[in-house]
Amino acid sequence: MADALAIDLGTLQGWESGRRPLANMKAGALLSLRRRLGLLGADQAVLGLLDAAMDADSIIGAALEPPEDIELHPLASWVHTRDTAHMLAWSLTGTAPPALAGRLPAPRRGPSASAPLLAATEKAMFFDRLREAAEAARGPGGGSLLHRQALYLASYDRGPGAAAWTKQALHAGRDVLARRGWSQYWAQARSTATALARHGDPQPLLDFIERSLAGDDDAEAANLNYWAYWLGGVRLPQADDQFMQDRELTSWDPVTLLRDLTYGLHYAPGYVDLYAHTLWALLAAHPWLPQASKPLAHDLVERAQRLLDGNGISERSRRELTTVHYVLRDRT
Fold it and tell me: Which range among 97-101, 267-271, 322-326 shows the weakest confidence by mean pLDDT?
C-alpha cells in the first residue's frame, strides 16, 4: 500500500495508528490521497466518511487538549452531523457506524484493534473535559452551540456518576422545553429532549413534539431542515443554527430525506414519535413524494404497519402514522 501511494511505510503506519492524523496533512496532499485511494479501488462510501472521521478526531483532540479560547472549540464553530456522532461513538463505545456495516476489514494476524477505541484514561478525560466545556458555555459569555453539542455528546457516557451528572444538567435546561413553537432556544430544546430520551426518559421529547413542534410552521420547517442536515442531506457545513429557519426547504432533496427517515424508522421510546411526526410533516410539505419512488413508498408502508400493529407509540404518532400509511397506499 505504501508503494502504491508513493509514501514511506512509517507514514502509512502513522496514519493507521493515529500518530499522524490525516487532518494534519496539507489540503492538496489530502485531496490527492483521496483520489489515489479511489483509483486503487477503495470503497467510495468509506472514502466519503473521511470528513466525518476527521471531524471526530478534531473534537476528540479539542477535548483532550482544550483550546485557550472557547470560541475555537470545534463544537462551537459548526453543527455536527450523524456521521460525525457515529464516528465519535465508535471511538467511545466500540460500536461501528451503521454506514460501515459489512465493510469492516477482516482481523489481521497478530495484535490489532477491532475498533478505534480510546484508552480508558483518555475516554474518562474526554468526557470530563466535555462536561467542563458544557458548563463553561452555559454562562452569559458562553456559546449556546457549544453548550448544546457538548451536553448532547456527554450523554454518551453511561457511567453511574456520569449518567447522574448528565441527567441533572439536562433537567436544569428543561425551562427551554416549556417554550411553545419556534424560538431561539428551539434547537437546544430539541437536543435536550432527545438526550433525555436516550437516558430512558421519553416524556420530554413527546412534550416537545406536542408543544414546540406540531402546528407551528417555523418549527416544522426547522425540524425538516435539521433532519436533512443531520442525516447528511445538506452538502454545505453549517456554522450555526440559522439554516434551520429556511421556510422554503430548498437546501436538500426530499426523496433522500424520505429514504433516510424510512430506513431509520424503528421502535425506541420517544425517538419513534419524532420519526413519525417528521415523516408526516415531510409528506404534508411534499405530497408528490409517494410517486417519486414506489419501492421506497412500499417499504415505508410495511414499516409503518409493523409499528401500528404493535404497542408503545403515542396516540399522536398512531394518528400520524395512520395518515402516512393511508397516503402512501392511496397514491402508489
Answer: 267-271
Is residue 9 scored above 70 in pLDDT?
yes
What whole-number distance in Å separates Cα of residue 168 and Cα of residue 154? 12
Q: CA triplet 254, 257, 261: central angle to 5 degrees?
A: 140
Q: How large is the greatest C-alpha to C-alpha distance in the chain, in angstroms?
A: 61
Four-point Cα dihedral 143, 81, 95, 266, nearest 10: 110
pLDDT in tens, 100-113: 888 877 766 666 67
pLDDT single digits (tens) 233-286: 998 899 999 999 999 998 999 999 999 999 887 656 568 899 999 999 999 999
On the CB side of 322, CA atoms within 13 Å amount to: 9
Do the Cβ atoms of 269 and 200 come closer than 8 Å? yes
Provide the whole-model pTM: 0.88
